[in-house]
Amino acid sequence: MSGGARLENANPLIFQRTGERLLTASEEDEDVADPIDDREIFDILLTPNYSYDPEHPLSLEELNVVEQVRVKVNDEESTVSVEFTPTIPHCSMATLIGLSVKVKLLRSLPARFKIDVHITPGTHVSEDAVNKQLADKERVAAALENSQLLEVVNQCLSTRPA
Amino acid sequence: MAADSIRLLDLVGDFVTGQVDSKATDVANGCVADFRLSLTSSESQTRGRGVQLLSQVLEECYTSLSEREVEVLVAFYENRLKDHYAITPHVLHGLKALAKCTVLPKGSAVSILKSLFQDVHVQSHGLANEFDCIPNHAELKGLGPDFVFGFVQAVDGERDPRNLLLAFQIARNIIHRGYNLSQFTEELFEVTSCYFPIDFTPVCRILTSFPSFLLPLIIEKLDSDMQNAKVDSLQTLAACASVYGHKELSDFLPSLWSSIRREVFQTASESVESAGLSALRALTSCLCRSVLTSNSEDSLHVFLDLVLKDCQHHLCEPDLKLVWPSAKLLQAASGASYRASLIVTAVVLPTLLEQYSSRTQCAQRRTLLEVVQGFIQPTASSWPAEGEETVLQPFRKSLCSVVFSALAESNASLQITAAKVLTKLGQQPGVLAQPDVEMAVDHLSRLVLEEHDAKVSLAVAECAGSLSRLHPAPFASRMIPKLKQEIFSGSSKPNVSYRCIMALASVSTQPSLVRESAPVLLQMLAAAHTGMSCCRIFSVEEVVSVCCSLQRIADQTPNTEEMGHFFHDVVIPRLLTLSLHAALQGENESGHSSPLIEEAVLSAIVPVINTACAALQTELATTMAAQAVYLFLDGDVSFLPENDCPSKIQLLRSQSWTQSQLVCLLMACVCSLPHSVDIPEFDRLLGQLEELSCTSTHPFSYTSAAKCFAGLINKRAAGQTLDGVLEKTLRRISVTLDNQSSAQRIQAFNLLVWMTKALLLRYHPLSAVLTDKVFSLMSDCLLASQAADCFELLMSDSPDVLNRSCHADVRIMYRQRFFAENSGKIVQGFNCAEQGKKSVYLKALSHIVNNLPRQVQLTELPSLLPVLLEALSCPDQVVQLSTLCCLQPALLDPPPALSTQLEALFSRLLPLTASPSMKVRIASLRCVHALSQLPEHMVLPFRAQVLRALASPLDDKKRLVRKEAVLARGEWWVFGNTLTATTM
Predict the structure, then answer these.
(1) Residue of A108, A101, A110, A45 whose CA lies nearest to A75
(2) By Cβ atoms counted within 10 A, which residue in B16, B246, B481, B904 is the most buried?
(3) Chain segment B919-936, per-residue pLDDT in tens
(4) How confident is the model over B321-325, as a mean pLDDT?
(5) Is the pLDDT of residue A89 over 90?
(6) Any idea where the MIP18 family-like domain is (chain A) (predicted)?
């Protein structure tokens, strides 16, 4: 991020974070199976850069890019659908955010899942183009062959300090 | 050359063997004369060797040279500088020696330097000592600008970092000693500043001397893209603001501010942000120091107006991101001094308070309140001096009303923030007036009774605790009676009464409050015991939480004689009476049986008595010991209130478990007293305890008796009497243990373990015998597994006895000593044991290693690694788990020995991620996660294997396991991506 250059959206609206998931007794019980649910997927998406510091850095949740209501999972049918909302309709990072979300899910979910990532309808100027790119398996694979792009995506996903 | 060498040897020999030092000068002069041949030889190499020798001689004898000799030598050396470049190093060496002479003739230093600058091309020599030649004589000042110019030329283009460091040192001397820089000021700055902000701290120190050049440089560097450059510039700015005055800064303030603001507003890095904030704080405090003149405007006001203008409006947009950086900037400026905080709060607080009342959303109000919280806490430098009133004075009323209205909201996070603000307000004397505190206490009491959210309750308890320290009276008169009424109202739900019990402990921070709160809790215990109170029956859990609260009170009250008396005279006798009554009633009472015979309750009473007794002064402690001992030996109940017990009760010899288990209270009373206290009837007491611990069939009774025995012998003075008692007991234990069919082997083993622990802690010589006894039991067919587990007990701290807070005799590093003496035996036992019994040794080892301090673990790990790896493949889940727990922290900072064992480690670790035990799966995934942090070249070969193996835990049936798997697999994906762009 260049110091001299202006950010695209320097003063974004921030939203409140949901608290940490509360541990239930059944989760600690060896014999009970816990199905993969919406909240679990949501937590996976927030794990990178997730911070309890109220100010910095902002997580995808605080920017309202990802909301729990827009995450849908069906464990039995092995499908996941995530809608994300760019902070501004002409956000140039939309594809990168979508790609990061998709890669994160590919790496964190069992192989049986079919993963669908797309922009919340009506929130971005080039919604269709971005959705098409994200849905195209070969384009996603090709994008990840690009080592520079892969590095940026990995940076978005890593929990290590850069 | 050979002939020269011989003469040289002669001369040097003369010098070395010559007893008179002054001969050295003759030698030196002689050298120059005698070596005319070699020094004037046409071969540059020969000349070089000649000069080298001469320089070495001078190095040895420069102290004894006369002024005249030095002059000659200086002239010679200056001349040599013009010679072949190969000779220069030796010439410099000699000059360095000459420069150290105290008798350096006037003008020599100047002339040496002139020749140096003139003839030596610094860049062409990679010499570490070039700059050493520049002597720091006052005389050089006279050389003035010429010297500086020469120096600048010498430094310019220098590449050797050692020389650079030296150059920076000289530059600092040049500046600090006030050399005349005149027209070369800028050149000197340029030649140094080009090294900024490479990590040379000396540079920063030099640069601070040039404000007019430095400040533009900082502004320029802040515009750069490099994170380090930004942080360094901001830190330099903070450093020089503490040296500069207003005069140096004034021209640059607006641009400095806009750079700082931009960085703090835009950055995602915490280091840039905090550097920016400290720079702003330093600038502000610099302006605060500046002296006002009558005709100029107040520079602090002007600067803060600038800051306020740029930040204040962001505070009115609590939804947007910039509210936070703006608040932090303003808080940094306000924290610089009292005057700055006066100016800033006068503008900011009214805005924030007005915003609070105009906004209605809870999230916005919470943000505003959190910002307010940052402004009301004065820093060390902005704390009001004596006679000055707090900056919050004009806002007291409105702040209180905002806080109270927030406490009355139903939003949890708003309430929590309000409680924090209230805490901060209460900590500053003079902010809260009496009616405000009373109002606050009422609000807090209401929240204790009505608020169900656990986080709010915690915040309320903290706030009440902090306020009660400064304002005990309203808590005693308003809160405690309300809580008491609720507890005994009969209608309260269990979780409400839990909160009341907790709150009673939280506010008991002053003796006056303890005198109010502790009786309420004791009354609850009495009601629970009789079960006859006007209200409902108290559950065991409630009674336990009452005891926890009593323990907290005992822990946090100031250790005064007054409080000692209170616990000794009121609390402890009351607890003993209630337990005794319950025990005498026994369990066969029809209908209600007292909760005070429950093990859980007694175990909760023990820490109360422990903590109280440990704090008693000697005199009270001695009475306490006598009272407890005679109560248990002879049934003397005279010191107890309501002593209507039957006489002749013998608690330690009682057949009823309800009575014999009271021995845990005896332990609490006598084992935590200070060392100096003499226990009466010591031998009789030990005898009865031994008997009880060996013969009782009630586990809680015999364990407590063994603990009490251990606690007593740990503190007893060493000597023959003690040894006699110990040997007698040991004989009894051995006889019982050797008799395989005895019914009391478990009891004997239990006493053995506690005795071992007591002696181990104080390095008693008998402890080695006892330890060996325990080791021998590891091959016992019945006790093997208990013997392995007892190492956990031996190595960890017991909460209720034999720990430092009980004044036990605990030598430092007893664990290391135990490990050093015994690890070999375990490894040996492991190697000798037959296959089925190996796990016992692994379990013992993992207990010991797990309790070692981390530093020791790390140093011991290389030697233990093979055994620990073995332990991972041991089928016992307890062993697996404890080994994993021991490995995981070590993997975060791995010893070099690990690198050769990685293959074996992964092959054992990865199968454990599919273990039937959830805890083992989680622990092994954590280890795999930790391994991803090793250097890439070590773990890259395993990447594909790990990623494959971690695919199945992603689909684990337990969510907690999946969570660890996601974290670990994520990390294993991320590293090494540039080397291998693996597809999914």
Answers:
(1) A110
(2) B246
(3) 999 999 999 999 988 888
(4) 87
(5) no
(6) 52-117
Task: Give burial (CB, 10 Å; 0-12/13-18/19+) of B333.
Answer: buried
Query: What is the mean predicted confidence (pLDDT) over B529-554?
Result: 83
Provide the shortest C-alpha distance from residue A108 to chain B (in Å): 5
Lowest mean pLDDT among B17-26, B201-210, B478-487, B875-884: B17-26
* B262/A3 Cβ within 8 A: yes
Angle at B296 between CA B293 and CA B302, to 5 degrees: 115
Which three-class secondary structure string do you get for B902-953?
HHHHHHHHHHHCCCCCHHHHHHHHHHHHHHCCCCHHHHHHHHHHHHHHCCCH
Does residue A53 lie within any of the structural domains? yes
Domain tally, chain A: 1
Residue B213: pLDDT band (50, 70, 90) is confident
Determine the residue type at B752. L
Look up the CATH number of the domain holding residue A66. 3.30.300.130
Q: Which residues of A touch B936 (CB under 8 A)?
A: none
Assess if residue A139 is contained within a domain: yes
In a domain, A7, yes or no: no
Helix axes A94-108, A137-145, angle to 10 degrees: 100
B25 or B749, greater pLDDT: B749
Contact by Cβ (8 Å): B801, B613: no
| Partner-chain residue, chosen from B265, B966, B983, that has the shortest CB–CB distance to A108 | B966
pLDDT at residue B209, rounded to an integer: 62
pLDDT band per the 50, 70, 90 thresholds, residue B52: confident
How many angstroms separate the CA atoms of A67 and A70, rounded? 5
Q: Which domain holds residue A72?
A: 34-156
- Interface residue B324 vs chain A (CB under 8 A): yes
Query: Around Cβ B35, how many Cβ atoms within 10 Å?
Result: 22
CA-CA-CA-CA dihedral for B488, B489, B490, B492, to nearest 10:
-100
